[in-house]
Amino acid sequence: MKCLTFSFLIILIVFIATTFAEKEPHRHKGYKHVFHDEYRKYLDAHPSKNHHEWSEERKFRREQRFNQTLEWIKNHKKNHHPYDVGVTRFADVLEEDLPKYHGLDESQNRHQRALPVINPLTSPPPASLDYTSWAPPITDQGKCGSCWAFSTIGMLSTVYRYTSNKVWNYSLSEQYLVDCDAFDNGCNGGWPKNTLLWLKNQSSLIPDSASYPYTSGTTANRTACKVTGLNKIPLKLTNIYQWNVNGNETLTKQILYSYGPVVTTMSVPLNCTAFYSYKSGVYVDNCNCVSNCTLVNHGVVLMGYGTENGLNYWLFRNSWGTTWGNNGYMKIARSSLNKCNMACFLMGIEQ
After folding, report:
1. How many CB atoms are located within 10 Å of the residue 167 CB?
2. Is 298 among the residues known to form the active site?
3. pTM of the predicted model as reported, rounded to 2 decimal places
4. Domain annotation covers residue 60
5. Any signal peptide, and if so, which residues (predicted)?
6. How many domains does the chain have?
7. Which of 54, 127, 228, 246 is exposed most, by the fewest CB atoms within 10 A?
């Protein structure tokens, strides 16, 4: 009987060890991970991921995450949804790495002096609004928490192009803000209101991107502030506003109609495959995105609103390049629940 018990224990130990080895082979000494064809093709299409620098464990986990995303996408497409999904740059990104692609620091909103809440007084806003035809090309913040800089530049560029009928047509430098803005914290986050105030303190001048190109998307770090050899563009920043709308959809539409595109804050859950895989249609949150304005983690440019197939939506411009979303844009469901906190803090300028 003892021999049978001992034999059973040996078999059980071998079974557990084998199962562990199959699930987590990267934990074994000398393990070398070999990518499968589908994932290798994906990496070849995304050379900026620099997978040659990954540890064997990271290679294993990234491919595992990629396979999980493919399976989720396949299951999503089996059912009817008002939005479509696909393979994006985030298909293999681990949850702990996703904050690098955001960068909104809500704590800096509380620590800086408050700006007045303005109630715009104009005619009622139209049923739909879309400023995208005035916007510059979509940009890409990369793996640097600089959404605060990109949303600020995206908003300013679109407003100036709109109000000048595209006579104003400069490409402004996000890297200048990442490196030099003393009110924000480079790749570790910031708050667009602070960015606008800092720019105003610099005589409302900012270099163009040709004389100060963006590099932090690959390095994930700020560099020493460059002060020479810059072609600086004058900005008009007479009045800078932050509106704390607290989910008020009517007021948000009114501000967007009265002042043009504005920076808006939002909450993106880190475990939300649906959001990171979005391609087109009206995104209806299914990731339990809570309505709490203290939990915002990403800054984007609110470009309009409308209705599609009976669903009301907000239209925003992101800073994740053109391979995410509908060429860099998203339509997200607009409702009184203020899902994903799209209507919490708006920041903009008066022309």
Report:
1. 8
2. yes
3. 0.89
4. no
5. 1-21
6. 1
7. 228
* Residue 92 CA to its chain's centroid (Å): 16
Helix (H) or strand (E) holding 196: helix 192-201
Catalytic residue among 51, 102, 109, 147: 147
- The CA distance from 151 to 104, in Å, is 10
Tokens representing 120 are 């715009």
What kind and span of H or E run contains 244?
Answer: strand 239-244
Catalytic hit among 51, 185, 187, 298: 298
- CA-to-CA distance for 183 and 206, rounded, in angstroms? 15
Name the packing angle between helices 56-77 and 37-45 (round to 10°). 100
Query: Is 76 an active-site residue?
Result: no
Identify the active-site residue in 318, 338, 341, 344. 318
What's the pLDDT tens digit per position in 146-196?
Answer: 999 999 999 999 999 999 998 999 999 999 999 999 999 999 999 999 999
CA pair distance 139, 158, nearest whole angstrom: 13
CATH code (residue 183): 3.90.70.10
Please indicate whether residue 147 is annotated as part of the active site: yes
Tokens of 314: 């907000």
Domain coverage including residue 226: 83-350
Residues 342, 338: Cα–Cα separation, whole Å: 6
Residue 308 pairs in a beta bridge with: 311
Q: What is the pLDDT of residues 258-274, one digit of tens each?
A: 999 999 999 998 889 99
